Amino acid sequence: MHYTGTVYRNPYEPPSPLLEITQGCSHNKCKFCNMYSAVKFKPSPIEWIEEDLAEIASMYPNTHRLQLLSADPFVLSFEQLDEICDLVHNYLSDIEIMTMAARVDNIKDKTVEELEILKSKGIVELNLGAESGDDWTLKRVNKGYESKDILKQCSKLDEAGIDYWLTFLNGLAGKEHSKDHAINSAKIFSQCNPTVVGTGGLVLFEGTGLLAQYRQGKFNPLSEKGLMEELKLFIENLDFDGRFITHHTFSMNLNNSNFKENKQRILDSLQHGIDNLDMDRLTQIRNNKRSL
């Protein structure tokens, strides 16, 4: 198999073979991320993709699911993705589901009709790393789009019938803009129709712009308690009917398959954690993290 650099997969998806169709990240400028800093973005050669499909077919001939890599493979044009879908079906006749990570602006150059074709060929779900719905925060960390773009591009996915996840990066705005980040993100996410909302907590990794700004006194990160309070504010303002996932340094299980039904239980559990958890221990755990 051809894998370039560290392989990142969505750990919340069912196990499935991984097929790399791009290398690195097409944007690679977000100030909180170092995942692909050493990998130059480019589409994987079609010859590599075909070789890897042959290998997958020899090991998992009856697989009905594939996870496509790397950071944002949906950046490929409709024509490129259409060709890859046809290749996949040539080698794996039982494929029904193809999933991948995507940036919001990866959708921009594809029409609803093209999205419908890709869905018919198996691209049924995208994991959108939105991170925030607050324009100040999006600009601060150089995401490369605005909140209105999230609404516009997600509406195209809704029309085409492609499911999508939306991610909220807890702590991304720092202390000064924490409230706006939480409330505005919840408002934008609530106007979309994600099947999953996922959240994680910011870690200032080496090589990132936010860590450099923190060391210069230009970024004031939230404490563990502040992260949990921000997450609670986000959840209080969030309204959607789907699966909720969070991965943090605290051990509370807030994950569930029906957010609306369990919203108050999630909030109660989170408040219990705010009141009772050992924040010093959680800080130590976060400081020891070296990768996502």
Could you explain the architecture of this structure?
The longest helix is centred in the C-terminal third of the chain and has 18 residues, at 259-276. Helix content is 41%, strand content 16%. The chain has helices at 46-59, 78-91, 112-120, 135-140, 147-160, 178-191, 209-215, 224-237, 259-276, 279-287, and strands at 18-20, 22-23, 42-43, 65-69, 97-102, 123-131, 163-170, 196-201, 243-247. With 292 residues, the chain is of the alpha/beta class. The strands form two sheets. It has a seven-stranded parallel β-sheet with strand order 1-4-5-6-7-8-9. A two-stranded antiparallel sheet has the order 2-3. The radius of gyration is 19 Å and the shape is globular. The chain has ten helices and nine strands. It has one domain: tm_1862 like domain (pyruvate-formate lyase- activating enzyme, Alpha-Beta Horseshoe).
Topology, element by element:
Blueprint: E1 18-20, E2 22-23, E3 42-43, H1 46-59, E4 65-69, H2 78-91, E5 97-102, H3 112-120, E6 123-131, H4 135-140, H5 147-160, E7 163-170, H6 178-191, E8 196-201, H7 209-215, H8 224-237, E9 243-247, H9 259-276, H10 279-287
Parallel strand pairs: 1-4, 4-5, 5-6, 6-7, 7-8, 8-9
Antiparallel strand pairs: 2-3
Helix pairs in contact: 1-2, 2-3, 3-5, 5-6, 6-8, 8-9
